[in-house]
Amino acid sequence: MDDLAGFLRTRRSRVDPAAVGIPTDSRRRVEGLRREEVAHLSGVSVDYYVRLEQGRATQPSDQVLDALARVLALDETEREHLHRLACQRRRAKVPGGRVRPELLRVLDLVADGPALITNHRLDVLAANRLAGLLYGRPVPGLNTARHLFLEEAERGFYADWETCTLDVVGHLRLAAGKYPEDPRLASLVGELAMGSERFRRLWARADVRARTYGRKAYRHPLVGLLELHQENFALPNEAGMELVVLSAPPGSPAEDGLRLLASLDTTGPTGPTDTTGRTGETDTTGPANTVGTTNTTNTADTTDTADVPAHPTRSPR
Question: Are 103 and 286 in contact (CB under 8 A)?
């Protein structure tokens, strides 16, 4: 329940007392609401709410959680996260890492834009050729959170680096709430916290985000700025996996840029590549840190991060 306690504390601190009818003056030193104020507005005892924030109360009712969500002004993503943190018995089993061959064929059908399959840890499980050209290095096995936060040389690759970091940390927070017993996810979070001061600050905020679509801009060293649209499709019956597709508006400079990017390498195979180097099932039971050594012309990265082509090459991106 420590995650629930931390989430409640951070949500409480951001609520403006005036917005819920509580007068304030210059003597008030508490950021946001006090514990007793949250308890009063939610209709629970102060003692019970204090025990919630201290991780000593278990299995709060749906009615209590809904009242807290209302007082703390949670959005839908945060509300679901709150219920998930509180209901430990309903937490999902850590999913496996097998990509069905049929999904690899779907990747192969995406010819005009980068496309990849990622898991809840933001490991890239499989990707098409254009995604590999965008990121410029072997993509299967790449973890995009690690790429974003720990590879300083790659920061310029993301035109909206700060926004990307918010999205990635929010995604990992959601994943940690859903799969709290995933040791590889816990190890990844620890590694990122050790290596990135920004990650530590954002993680401490306990913000959650469920990004399903939006603008994604990259600065490619060969074709320039690529302002793309990203769509994330949750894969049915494939827990934690998403198909991520990047596209450019018709007639836009980004569309021209993707065409130029596709023309940079025409010597490699055109099918998708998975983390095992086969056009079949993907196995992610090995270390999440390992970048695959398969042919890079068929591979791509995950929700936010990327590598570049085999011809010509550039510094790891």
Answer: no
CB atoms within 10 A of CB 237: 6
275-285 pLDDT, tens digit per residue, is 544 333 444 44
Q: What's this model's pTM, rounded to 2 decimal places?
A: 0.77
Tokens of 16: 């403006």
What are 62-88's pLDDT values in tens digits?
899 999 999 999 999 999 999 888 876
Q: Classify the C-alpha dihedral 143-284-187-207 as positive or negative.
A: positive
Q: Distance between CA atoms of 56 and 1, rounded to whole angstroms?
A: 8
Closest CA to 220 of 148, 305, 158: 158
Angle at 172 between CA 137 and CA 314, to 5 degrees: 15
Distances (CA, A) of 205 to 11, 34, 241: 9, 17, 25
